[in-house]
């Protein structure tokens, strides 16, 4: 059963050096949807896209370090993808304060990246803040952190060709960057459900902002036997904001053997967003220029 944008065709795989014209285009932190609905927010097709210039929230000191890392990787001819809070802002148009930047790379480029950053004056953060080196290299310069990632922290999967062929484009402070695909972004965040840290709030924001843009077939293929995680998340999402959950493909709910949400005339008795977290974490109920508190 095909779900989402391609009802009869599987998601196409392309050579990593090609396929740029089919990528999502992200400009000034707002997902551009091309001809689908005129570039408006997918969950609010009759309203203008968010205009919060989230890139302006990055300090000059931080941006100088980030730009240096980007230029270093380019000079070393190492392809990389923008992830983390920057990717979240690229897809949702919403910024949250972050003190680092995440770049995803091919696993076999790990040592080449470490060597290049070291030559450029970056230092390994391990001596000051030990971390698991099996999936990430944490470099720092002038107190600013640049994370290099090639695998999920739980070792569920490594970065592969699909991460690059499905990447989107963003223009960020005169830098043209590739962004981690929406599907891989959601996939990796599904597993982060720890006692002191949970990324499901990020996924709720992603679904609210661009749920209609997800290649659901591809994501389901990635999950394999881990589909119960997605089932659980969608059930919470449907409870959290039923009208938005109704916009997801009905075929998706059927494929996951879940009852599709039904319209309700009665508003919820309680503020469900605040039941999960009293901070301003959900973009759906925050002003367009409001930073996310997550």
Description:
The chain has helices at 60-75, 84-92, 110-119, 161-165, 182-190, 200-210, 216-223, 227-240, 242-245, 250-255, 272-276; strands at residues 25-27, 30-32, 81-83, 100-104, 123-124, 136-141, 144-149, 168-172, 175-179. The strands form two sheets. The chain has a five-stranded mixed β-sheet with strand order 3-4-7-6-5. The chain is α+β, with helices and mostly antiparallel strands and 294 residues long. Strand 6 (136-141) and strand 7 form a beta hairpin. The chain is globular.
Summarize the structure.
The chain is an alpha+beta fold and 294 residues long. It is built from eleven helices and nine strands.
Shape: globular
Number of strands: 9
Strand fraction equals 5-15%
Radius of gyration: 19 Å
Percentage of residues in helical conformation: 25-40%
Order of adjacent strands in the largest pleated sheet: 3-4-7-6-5
N- to C-terminal distance: 35 Å
Order of helices and strands: EEHEHEHEEEHEEHHHHHHH
Low-confidence stretches: 5-22, 27-52
Main beta sheet: strand number and arrangement? 5 strands, mixed
Overall pLDDT: 84
Number of helices: 11
Structural class: alpha+beta
């Amino acid at each position: 059963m095909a779900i989402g944008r391609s009802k009869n065709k599987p998601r196409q795989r392309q050579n990593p050096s090609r396929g740029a014209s089919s990528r999502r285009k992200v400009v000034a932190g707002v997902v551009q949807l091309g001809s689908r609905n005129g570039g408006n927010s997918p969950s609010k097709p009759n309203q203008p896209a968010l205009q919060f210039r989230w890139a302006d929230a990055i300090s000059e000191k931080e941006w100088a370090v980030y730009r240096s890392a980007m230029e270093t990787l380019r000079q070393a001819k190492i392809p990389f993808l923008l992830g983390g809070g920057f990717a979240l802002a690229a897809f949702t148009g919403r910024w949250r304060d972050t003190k680092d930047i995440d770049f995803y790379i091919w696993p076999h480029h790990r040592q080449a990246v470490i060597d290049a950053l070291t030559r450029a004056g970056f230092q390994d953060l391990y001596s000051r803040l030990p971390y698991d080196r099996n999936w990430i290299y944490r470099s720092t310069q002038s107190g600013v952190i640049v994370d290099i990632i090639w695998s999920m922290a739980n070792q569920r999967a490594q970065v592969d060709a699909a991460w690059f062929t499905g990447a989107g484009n963003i223009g960020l402070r005169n830098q043209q960057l590739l962004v981690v695909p929406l599907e891989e972004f959601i996939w990796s965040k599904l597993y982060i459900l720890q006692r002191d840290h949970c990324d499901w709030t990020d996924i709720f924001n992603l679904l609210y902002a661009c749920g209609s843009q997800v290649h659901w077939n591809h994501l389901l293929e990635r999950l394999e036997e881990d589909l119960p995680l997605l089932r659980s998340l969608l059930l919470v999402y449907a409870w959290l904001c039923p009208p938005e959950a109704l916009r997801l493909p009905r075929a998706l709910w059927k494929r996951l053997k879940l009852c599709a949400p039904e319209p309700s005339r009665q508003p919820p008795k309680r503020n469900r967003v605040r039941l999960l977290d009293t901070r301003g974490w959900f973009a759906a109920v925050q002003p367009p220029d409001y930073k996310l508190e997550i």
